[in-house]
Amino acid sequence: MPLSVLAITTSPRRHGNTESALDTVLESFSGMSVEKVVLNDLNIAPCKGCGKCEKTGVCIHQDDFAELGEKIRACDLLVFASPVYSMSVCAQAKILIDRCQVFWSRKYVLHDLPKPEGKKFAMFISASGQTRKGIFDHTVPVAQFLFDVSQIPASRIRYLLLPGLDKISDFRKNPEMIAKAKEAGDAMAALMVEE
């Protein structure tokens, strides 16, 4: 059975810099089963902070997160892509990550989160219009939470952080950034096959 890749693009702006970088990375996974999810097309309600998942291990919402959550837990590689919005991930990404509180509750409160399926690798892709120092300092920890509750070891996580891409086509016009994305994808594909 081929290795499985779940790619989640969270930007509300389709085919922008972050999604274009994601698509470039995905070219490296030929021969693998690749599914790309456009988060903005799904119906995922925000977390209510009710704490029910800490008692039951199940979220009270009945929406598209249930299926997506299972895919996150089952894939060999999770590629999570979010642009920088207001110094953090975009709202759509944050809603998804907040809903992963159910995984956190099962792992750290109820201690009954089953061992995940798959090899468990992850990559976080983020593009920012700014170039100032520390521009990704508040996006990376948010993505790390997702990877932690998805039980992905830190040694198997890679980051592709792309500053200075403001206009919607900046990535596609930048050979250096395209090469960086191809290199990141190739390196991850090689790592998955090695381990």
Nutshell version of this structure?
The chain is of the alpha/beta class and 195 residues long.
What can you tell me about this protein's structure?
It is built from 7 helices and 7 strands, in the order E-H-E-H-H-E-E-E-H-H-E-H-E-H. It is an alpha/beta fold and 195 residues long. The chain has one domain (4-194): Rossmann fold. Helix 1 crosses helix 7. The protein starts with a strand and ends with a helix. The mean pLDDT is 95. This is NADPH-dependent FMN reductase.
Question: Which terms summarize this structure?
Answer:
single chain, 195 residues, alpha/beta, Rossmann fold, 5-stranded parallel beta sheet, two-stranded antiparallel sheet, 7 helices, 37% helix, globular, FMN_Rdtase-like_dom, NADPH-dependent FMN reductase
